[in-house]
């Protein structure tokens, strides 16, 4: 069975003074990616609460203000609506703002600006106005935080026409995807799984990355297709390793892009396996996993040997931290869904 892979092909010489291959956490990879974007384009600005002198609550922007100055790495007031509104104005004037929302639940004060202005300006102006804004949102649970700090609000944004929505799951993707998001001429909501922030991977900064809006098969298998994104990718890879001990081969697909969805690899896989399990921390009602399930049923109906099954968070507000292990989908729940699928 193939091991998890991230596509990187070495194509260019490393920059002088930089090691082309190094082991980094996701926090470090995001910092490096933002640094590369700031170096490449003087119109890129980073803004948010405590992103400057403090370096962000998770230290993703550590050192950037010192190196690029207060005019390009801006500490903002505690006002998400103001952050997004200011970014919209900057984008109209030709800048490429990267906004940090400290925690997932803090995005809602800025929700009006995102869905009413950011998502609509390019369409409203018939393409004459571009708003290349990136909104970074640490999302998901698993860090023992209180409410408003562990939510999965991605479905709100994936449902909103005019926004592009992506979720990285590992340090390599974090490094490349944040740079690609900054270069995109459409607004991008960029979700970062905070409980994976300090997990490590080898990063080759001279590689050629996959396209931003593309899903990827991480592990091949012929028994059941498992599609996931963000924090659930590692959980599903661990489930695949455990299932292999019992002779069950799971094909694990990282969706990566939530809007637009890239479901070609999922369709191809389901036509081979006849079974699909979807995994996400978000509640199941009207969610990304619900959309994927519906699309697979439409496109692969005659290939399915079992109903599409979903492993998700429960349809409740996020619980107190002492209960989050009961709320979050884990390896056992994924494997239980796999067993149910194989039982049909």
TrEMBL record:
Cofactor(s) the record lists: thiamine diphosphate
Keyword Oxidoreductase among UniProt keywords: yes
Keyword presence, Transmembrane: no
Gene3D superfamilies hit by this protein: 3.40.50.920, 3.40.50.970
CDD domains xrefs: TPP_PYR_E1-PDHc-beta_like
Transmembrane feature ranges: none
Keyword terms: Oxidoreductase, Pyruvate, Thiamine pyrophosphate
UniProt protein name: Pyruvate dehydrogenase E1 component beta subunit
UniProt organism field: Streptoalloteichus tenebrarius (strain ATCC 17920 / DSM 40477 / JCM 4838 / CBS 697.72 / NBRC 16177 / NCIMB 11028 / NRRL B-12390 / A12253. 1 / ISP 5477) (Streptomyces tenebrarius)
Taxon lineage: Bacteria, Bacillati, Actinomycetota, Actinomycetes, Pseudonocardiales
């Amino acid at each position: 069975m193939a091991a998890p892979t991230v596509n990187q092909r070495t194509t260019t010489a490393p920059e002088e003074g930089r090691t082309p291959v190094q082991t980094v956490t996701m926090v470090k990879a995001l910092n490096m990616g933002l640094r590369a974007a700031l170096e490449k384009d003087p119109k890129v600005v980073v803004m948010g609460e405590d992103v400057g002198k403090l370096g962000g609550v998770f230290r993703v922007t550590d050192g950037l203000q010192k190196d690029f100055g207060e005019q390009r790495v801006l500490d903002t007031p505690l006002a998400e609506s103001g952050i997004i509104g200011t970014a919209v104005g900057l984008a109209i004037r030709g800048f490429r703002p990267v906004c940090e929302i400290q925690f997932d639940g803090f995005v809602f004060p800025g929700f009006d600006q995102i869905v009413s202005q950011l998502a609509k300006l390019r369409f409203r102006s018939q393409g004459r106005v571009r708003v290349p804004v990136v909104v970074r949102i640490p999302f998901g649970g698993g860090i023992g935080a209180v409410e408003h700090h562990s939510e999965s609000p991605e479905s709100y944004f994936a449902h909103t026409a005019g926004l592009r929505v992506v979720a990285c799951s590992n340090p390599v993707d974090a490094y490349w995807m944040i740079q690609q998001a900054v270069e995109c001429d459409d607004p991008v909501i960029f979700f970062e799984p905070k409980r994976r922030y300090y997990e490590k991977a080898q990063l080759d900064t001279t590689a050629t990355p996959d396209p931003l809006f593309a899903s990827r098969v991480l592990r091949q298998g012929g028994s059941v297709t498992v599609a996931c994104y963000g924090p659930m990718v590692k959980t599903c890879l661990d489930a695949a390793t455990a299932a292999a001990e019992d002779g069950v081969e799971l094909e694990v697909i990282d969706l990566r892009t939530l809007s637009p969805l890239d479901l070609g690899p999922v369709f191809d896989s389901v036509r081979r396996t006849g079974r699909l399990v979807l995994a996400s921390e978000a509640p199941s009602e009207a969610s990304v996993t619900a959309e994927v399930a519906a699309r697979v049923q439409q496109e692969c109906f005659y290939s399915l040997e079992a109903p599409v099954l979903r492993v998700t968070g429960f349809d409740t507000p996020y619980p107190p931290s002492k209960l989050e292990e009961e709320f979050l989908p884990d390896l056992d729940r994924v494997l239980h869904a796999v067993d149910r699928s194989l039982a049909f």
